[in-house]
Amino acid sequence: MTDPASILGLPKPAWAGEDVAMLYDMATRFLEAEIAPRYEAFEKAEIFDRESWLKAGQNGLLCASIPEEYGGSGGTFAHESAIIEAVSHVGVDGFGIALHNSIVAPYILHYGSEEQKKKWLPKMASGELIGAIAMTEPGAGSDLQGIKTRAEKDGNQYRINGSKTFIINGQLANLIIVVAKTDPEKGAKGTSLIVVETDEVDGFERGRNLDKIGLKSNDTSELFFNDMRVPTANLLGAEEGQGFVQLMQQLPQERLQIGTTAISMVERALALTIDYVKDRKAFGKAVIDFQNTQFKLAELKTEATIGRVFYNDCVARHIDGGLDPVTASMAKYWLSDLQGKIVDECLQLHGGYGYMNEYPIARMYRDARVQRIYGGTNEIMKLLIARSL
Ligand SMILES: Cc1cc2nc3c(=O)[nH]c(=O)nc-3n(C[C@H](O)[C@H](O)[C@H](O)COP(=O)(O)OP(=O)(O)OC[C@H]3O[C@@H](n4cnc5c(N)ncnc54)[C@H](O)[C@@H]3O)c2cc1C
Asked: Distance of alpha carbon 120 from its chain centroid, rounded?
């Protein structure tokens, strides 16, 4: 297959230096050798195995941006980007390491006490602990302030009651950041983040591994907390009530990371499609010889190039600490919309074969759809952008 990483022919941005390129190559080789051959089985089983996580840890794919003193590789978001790009370029998008690496681990790094960081981060880097973040509830998604999960202090423990849904890595995760109300009277200011080590608590129950239209191999699940007892020492932050501020501070990276997947999947879709239309014949010539195919792919390559330049600029700003929430929302909304459009057009150029699951573009079409929904829907992104007008 044509290399998705070079399909747009753009110069590498300054943040993608030699070590980032090496990590990308290493991650690609690992994913092609260890994950891709078993991916179909994971898709069928609707879950990965723990062994893949442990191997990913051994091969440096977990916690690349966590400092070495906590077991990570001491990199930046550029390194996280390289890993996410490799996942999408190889086409194993259900492997939930992006969320583990660039969403869950940073919460612990930024808000955890020294003790918490030393306890959890090295095990997240090795893959012994698999991370998840549980915000959404059956009755509250976009309107996160409406969550009902309650954490009541009882001595040196929290007693947590409630339920969550759509939680990525929900069956495998053994370290889950739960968003809960510690003081319902105070609204957003009464919300806290509490780390649940699932192997060590009573009252924790996993619900269904949900039947989704795409990302089948990811175990996205319901979770239930019935008088679940968690030590008060597992609160993230020095005091209760910081949850919303913490969530808001981490949102730019979470949204940018959805953009990483979007632009990388766009590159893979283009690479696959260009190969396909060069090979496929109709009316005595290759499909690429029709002017419609050429014009369509010319448009898609142009739009993908605009998307990649914007993405690269967002990463540069993020690494410098200057990616504002509005621009991050633009990246999440625009790049995931672009992904939906380009993957759809690429499927069309495959004709009937594009609708067959044995062709990767079919799976990409299903996998792409959720990108406009999770991480804050694209409507919510526009709301946030509009507030800056
Ligand atoms: C596969 C998958 C994985 C997920 N992973 C996680 C996870 O790991 N952890 C987690 O906590 N959550 C996760 N989510 C949840 C996800 O973030 C929510 O589904 C999303 O935020 C939308 O919430 P909702 O589903 O309740 O939709 P709703 O909030 O009910 O929205 C329904 C519709 O109304 C629109 N809408 C809502 N409010 C407004 C408004 N003010 N203005 C305009 N339109 C509006 C929405 O855009 C949407 O189109 C995941 C979801 C999916 C599908």
From this structure: 20
Give the tens place of pLDDT for each residue, 144-167: 999 999 999 999 999 999 999 999
Among candidate residues 133, 80, 79, the one with its CA nearest the CA of residue 108: 133
Q: With CA atoms as reference, report the closest residue to 96 among 370, 346, 379, 380.
A: 370
Count of CB atoms within 10 A of residue 324's CB?
12
Q: What is the mean pLDDT of the chain?
A: 97
For the whole model, what pTM was predicted?
0.97
CA of 142 to the centre of ligand 1 (A): 5
| Angstrom distance (rounded) from CA 262 to CA 332 | 8
Supply the pLDDT for residue 187: 87
Please name which of 375, 367, 373 lies closest in space to residue 95, comparing C-alpha atoms.
367
Residue in the structure block whose two tokens are 């979770």: 223
**162 contacts 192 by C-beta, under 8 angstroms:** no
Query: Dihedral of the CA atoms 90, 91, 96, 101 (nearest 10)?
Result: 40
> Catalytic residue numbers?
254
Provide the 3-class DSSP secondary structure of residue 176.
strand
Look at residue 132 and give its three-state secondary structure. Answer: strand
What percentage of the chain has pLDDT greater than the value 90? 99
Alpha helices in 280-349 (DSSP H): 291-319, 325-349
| Distance in angstroms (rounded) separating the CA atoms of residues 86 and 269 | 14
Distance 346 CA to ligand 1 centre (A): 27
pLDDT, position 42: 98
Q: Give yes or no for residue 229 having a pLDDT over 90.
A: yes
Q: Does residue 17 surpass a pLDDT of 90?
A: yes
**What does the pLDDT look like over 93-138, one tens digit per residue?**
999 999 999 999 999 999 999 999 999 999 999 999 999 999 999 9
Beta bridge partners of 193: 179
Q: Give the residue, out of 208, 373, 385, 387, with the most ligand 1 atoms within 8 A of its beta carbon, to mutate for a pocket test.
A: 373
Distance CA 192, CA 178 (A): 8
Q: Residue 178: what are its φ and ψ, rounded to 5°?
A: -105, 130
Dist. CA 370 → ligand 1 center (Å)? 10
Question: Residue whose CA is closest, atom 39 of ligand 1?
Answer: 380
